[in-house]
From TrEMBL:
PANTHER family: SULFATE TRANSPORTER YBAR-RELATED (PTHR43310:SF1). It comes from Oceanomicrobium pacificus. It comes from the Bacteria. InterPro entries: Membrane-Transporter-like (IPR052706), SLC26A/SulP_dom (IPR011547), STAS_dom (IPR002645), STAS_dom_sf (IPR036513). Its main location: membrane. Residues 418-507 form the STAS domain. It is found in: Membrane. The lineage of its organism: Bacteria, Pseudomonadati, Pseudomonadota, Alphaproteobacteria, Rhodobacterales. CDD domains: STAS_SulP_like_sulfate_transporter. The keyword Transmembrane helix applies. Pfam families: STAS, Sulfate_transp. It is a multi-pass membrane protein. This is STAS domain-containing protein. GO terms for cellular component: membrane. Keywords: Membrane, Transmembrane, Transmembrane helix.
Amino acid sequence: MFRSTLTAFARAVNPGEALNSVTMTPDRVRIELLSGLTVALALVPEAVAFAFVAGVEPLVGLYAAFIVGLITAVFGGRPGMISGATGALAVVMVALVAEHGVQYLFATVVLMGILQLLAGIFRLGKFIRMVPQPVMLGFVNGLAIVIGLAQLEQFKVTDASGHEVWMTGPMLWGMLALVAATMALIWLVPKLTRLVPAPLAAIGIVTALVILFDIPVPRVGDMASVSGGLPEFAIPMVPLNLETLSIIFPYAVILAAIGLIESLLTLNLVGELTNKRGGASQECLAQGAANVVTGFFGGMGGCAMIGQSMINVKSGGRTRLAGIAAALFLLCFILFAAPAIEIIPLAALVGVMFMVVIGTFAWNSIALLRRVPRSDAFVILLVTGVTVAEDLAVAVVVGVIVAALVYAWNAAARIHAVERPSATETGAKVYELEGPLFFGSATGFMELFHPEEDPDTVILDFANSRVVDASALQAIEDIAAKYEALGKRVMLRHLSRDCHALLHHAGQLMVDSEDDPKYSLAVDYDVRSGVLGGAA
C-alpha cells in the first residue's frame, strides 16, 4: 500500500518518469527527505546573504528560494537539481534596486521569466551543447572558487560604529575550529553510518556543541530574522508604459541569460554525476515559470544553484522528492521553525559549503593543463578567472568565443590542395582539395591556385573538402571569375550532398539535369559567376 502510494506520487510530480525511475522504497524516501532537509538548512544563510547583496529584505530572498526551488523541483529538466536565489543574479539586481526600488525588481523578474519561457518554447536550451569541455571545466572551477570566497563574508562582524570588520581573537579561532570540525565530521560520518546525510549530521552535532558549551560564534539569527508568513500575490507597482519597459528590459535580458546559462551548465554537471541526459528545454520552461510566479509573489528571482545541487547529490538525493522536500522544509522554517533555525552556528554551514567547494572543483583539470593543447588550457584558465572576476555569463560567452576562434584558426590552417593532371579530361588540371572551405580558410583557398599558369580547364575536386558558408561560396565564385577572365574553365567534382545543395541553392552550379542522386559518378559542374556579386 505504501509503495503504491509512493509510485502514484512519483507519477503525479513527474509523469512517465516515476521520480527519475528510482524505486521509491521507505529507505529511499528517508534518504530523499533527509537530503532535502540538509539542502534547506544550507539554503537559509545563502538566500539571506544574496538578498543583502541585491539590497532587498531577507524574506525576498527566502521567498525566491522557496518558490523557484519548488517549481523547478517539480517541473525541471533534471531531478536532483536545486534552484533558488543566487549571487550571480543578485550582483546584477543591486543597481536596479538602488536606482528604481524593489517593485521594479519584481517587474524585471516577471519579464525575465517570460524571456526564459520563450527560450524553452523555441528550444534554445539545446545550444548549451555548444559549450566546449574546457569551458565547462573553467565554469566548475570558477564557480567553486566563487562559492568559497563567498563564505569568507561569514568571518566578518559589525563593530560599534556599524562597519563590517574581520573577526579577531577567540571568536575567530572558535569559528575556524567549528568549520574544521564540520568538515571533519562530513568526511567521517559516511565511514560510520549512512542513515543520515553527512552534512546534516555535521550541522546537528556542531550546533549541539555550540549550544552545550555556549561558544560565542555568529549564528543564523545574527544575519537576519528568517521568520515570516506565506508569500502573498501582488502585481508589481510600476507604471505600465514604455518608459518602465526601457528600464527593466535590459536587466531582464541579462538576468534571463545568466539564469539559463548557470541552470543549463548545472544541469549538465548534475547529469554527469547521475548519468542522465537531456531536459534542457524543459529546464528553460521550468525556470521561466518559476521566475514569473516569483515576481508576482515578492521574490527576487533565481536559477539553479550548483553548490546546493552538489549538497543534494552528495547527500543521496536523486529524485524530485528531495528538491520538493527542500522547498517545503524552507517554507516550514519561515512559518514555524525560525527560532530553531536561527540558533544554528554559521560555522557549521560554512563548513558544509567548503566541503562543497572541495567536491566541486575539478582537481584533475590541474594535471590536464599540461596534457591538453595550450589553447584548451588557456580557455580553462580564462573562464575560471573571468567567472571569479566578473560573472558566469560573461565567462561562458568569452570562453565559447575564444574556443570557437581557436577552432576556426586550426580548421583554416588545414586547407590545402594536391595538384595533378586529370585522368578523364585531356589536358585538364585537378586540384584535390583537403580541409573545410569556410570564412576562416577562404583567403588560404584563393592562394592555392595559379590561374595564369594553369591549362584551359581546371577541376576542383571536393572529395575531401566541404563547402560550409557564404564566404566559401564567394571564394568559389571569385576564383572561377579569375579563370573566366583568362578565358579558362573551372569545374567542380565530387560535391557531397550538403555542398551540392548549398551551391545549387545559391545558383552557382550550371547543371543540365539532376541525374546523379547517389553521387556515385564523378559528375563535373561548371560554375556560374556573378551570382553573389563577386568579380565578373
